[in-house]
Description:
Helices cover about 35% and strands about 35% of the residues. The chain is an alpha+beta fold.
Amino acid sequence: SPLEELFTSIAFDREASLANPSNHSRLLRLGGRLVAFVPVTDQQTLSEMLPNQDLKERAGLQFEVSREQPLNEKLSRWLVSYLSVR
């Protein structure tokens, strides 16, 4: 999913900044927030659309909050927020 690709990029960037901190500016600074809309159909759950715990830990992100916006009977989009903790 696009959100998993984004988490993977943040994890890779975080690992690169740890390897060479003097020549690297991070994509998401400590204390920064990653906010995204996640589409979810009526046959899916939000939790199955979000990155797994291992990927969240590698990226140094902690889940903060989610809010649902129903679009019609079959589709909603969820606003999700993550906090950079590492």
